[in-house]
# Entry
Amino acid sequence: MQHLSRFAAELLKSLGNLVPIVAVVVIFQVFVFRAVPDNPLALLGGLAIVAVGIALFLHGLDLSIFPVGKNLANQFVRRGSLGLLLPFGFAIGFAASIAEPAVIAVAEQAQLVSAGRINAVVLRFVIAVSVGLVLVVGVLRVLRGWAIHKLLIAGYAAALGLTFIAPPEIVGLAYDSGGVTTNIVSVPLIAAIGLGLANSLRGRSVLTDGLGLVALCVMVPTIGVQLYGIWVYTFGAAGAAPPPESGEDPGAWVANMIFGLAGIFRDVLPIVAVVLFFQFVALRRRLVHPLRVVVGFFMVLLGLYAFVGGLKLGLFPLGTLMAQQLIEQGTPALILLFAVLIGFAVTMAEPALLAIGEQAEEAAPGRINAFAVRMIVAFGVALGIGFGTYRILVGGPFHYFIMAAYAVALLLVFLAPKYVIPLAFDLGGVTTSEVTVPLVTALGIGLATAVEGRNELIDGFGLIAYASIFPVIAVMVYAMVMEQFPRLRKEKP
# Structure
């Protein structure tokens, strides 16, 4: 009964995360379009399946992978075993990213839109290797006390430099890939490693040293995917796009379900293998609750399968439909208003944002207010998605727009208080949730398809990148204002 009540709580939370999106969509359908979408029950059913999938997935993680993974991180930190901690960091980063639902969704969309030239599996592998490598660097940063702003400046300088020579078809996707790596699976495990190290080492601060791993995991995949794109568009050839799915034949439906579950099992297997290997081989310890771990693993499989299926039924068609309706209205102001409202509403419901904001307030009482940070980040996401939507409407090279945004962020790194820099970049990484990513991706591709003269691959991707960098700018500006006007904050002894 306890597990059932916890699952019900997760399901209610997942449904609650969808409420702001549904509210915005209903307002536009009733008061702006004055129309009912075709197959509204299918759209609502898809959204409900997404919520059930997220609840199953999260509850399964809580039963199986998270407790074992966090315990491993704590054990390595206590033992001070660098030879085990670094391989564990790489393996966890790789395995968590390869099983990340948002990465799977964006990779499949990229393969579909590029007519198979971008391979979804290879793209996920590139992102996962990038996250694994940067986690090794992040662990060393905490151990050695390296300043996070120096790593961020060097990394984004490399990313922006590659933007000049990377094919335009890959640039938007590369920056989006950085935004989707830190999500449902990866953030808790990555945060556990960083905060565990900072708490265990003398002279380290939770705020300046414990935070920042998420920021690095957003940055490096951008570099990796651009390098992959240079190789693909120089030496590669067009591949096979995923075949359209048909649900009319019952036999084909059953076969698709079996193959889909097998594919999900293949995706989740790496993270399970990593956790069990380090548990039994490295630490030579048995699992405390093996039956619970097995049940949780199967819940993860079913949750991921439901999540991906719900996206295809609900969120992706919904984003495409809203984009088409907005274009038919012919009013750019309505399109921008919808983009801004969706960005703000979804971010305010993001649980990871709330958690990190509260941790930051505890670490810096009087200097950081959790609710204020949440509002500032939501405003930044809304502004970023609005800015990206404006670029799709008016045209113009993506890399000029994104480089301008990152240039502002890097300039603020020199001006903002040093304590807020890891927090700001971490917050930029957690704003793109499992619900935001599919809807925003579908909106961008839908707009690029509907607006004359736009390319789905070049212009359709990139909204997630703006939703990641604008909150970083907003948080650093907020901290600068608080430092200049201390009366605006409540000082605590």
The CA atoms of residues 406 and 425 lie 11 Å apart.
